[in-house]
Design a protein that fits this description.
The structure is a single chain. The strands form three sheets. Strands 2, 3, 4, 5, 10, 14, 15 and 16 form an eight-stranded mixed β-sheet that branches. Strands 1, 6, 7, 8 and 9 form a five-stranded antiparallel β-sheet that branches. A three-stranded antiparallel β-sheet has the order 12-11-13. Helix 9 packs across helix 11. The protein has one domain: 3-Layer(aba) Sandwich (Rossmann fold). By secondary structure, the protein is of the alpha/beta class. It is globular, with a radius of gyration of 20 Å. The longest helix has 16 residues. The termini are far apart. It is 37% helix and 24% strand. The protein has 15 helices and 16 strands.
Amino acid sequence: MLSEILKESISNTGIISFRDFMAEALYHPQHGYYTSGAAAIGHKGDFYTSPSLHPIFGAVIARQIEQMWQVMGMPKIFDIVEIGAGIGYIANDILKDISGQFSDSLRYNIIEVNPKSLRILNNNLLPSDNLRIIKDIAELDNIEGCVLSNELIDALPVHIVKKFNGSLKEVYVDSKFREVYRDCSADIIEYIKEFAPGLPDNYRTEVNLESRQWINNVSKVLAKGFVFTIDYGYSAREYYDMERSRGTLVCYHRHSVNENPYINIGLQDITSHVNFSALKRWGEMVGLETIGYCGQGMFLASMGIDEILSQIEGPAYQHAVNRVKEMVLPGGMGQSHKVFIQCKGMKDIKLRGFDFSNKKNIL
């Protein structure tokens, strides 16, 4: 249905940028992948995430956030703002894991746009007087705490560009979902000059300008605290290496991966890897200092995931071991996914998650 809607719309208005096509495919008010309820995680869905594999992931995140609370002087009110919470895997696991004074201080705020996820959230979240679901981060103000996201930024709409004869062109889409090329905007040209100068001819890649607006919006509501980002991506140097001369855009549908965003429109996820160097640079411009950056596997090991694992008994232990391997081992999420933490209103902060590895200097 969305395919026909987009064809008619483009026929009437003219070609649209790939960024706008991706925005419609994922976030069209009625038929977008995330807004229609089509998005699904887990065995019966389109893909897995670490929180969906096992509750131990949320337990580790809870450990790190509790240390953030301690670093901030154990304030009486500490807000977690989870953006793109899905059906609440992390929220439930954090709320189950914490206790004592930290639990008494915590307010948990969930932001989610998927109506199917919202229905499940309302039914399944642990009862708590300190938990609320809101529609937009702009509803918050002067937050002291932690803004958390897991596999969110990869789903922000991106521009696609390609170099031809020394000239950079942007991908547009016509009514038959064919790609055509047009001149790039000044913002895109500036981005490429800053993060990917010297791209060779025939190099195709993504430009995620939405992430700049995202980090600006987060900083506006965060008075003091942390931005805790988990996603798959690279530093700019790695992102724009010749190894990725076709870009990083991929689609997920029923646990199958493809590189064609023009099929299964509204029924498949479309993602691209995150440029963490851009998030660092743009964060610094709005008062966010980078604390650490490393692979998810090293982060989970630094946080003592083995200690938590050892407390599991019986048949559940081996199941947990198998799931943890998927989260931590190289060649999988342990390597592809990165943990990136920034802070605001504090200096010289050290967090346990980066005890074993901190590669922030490569950003």
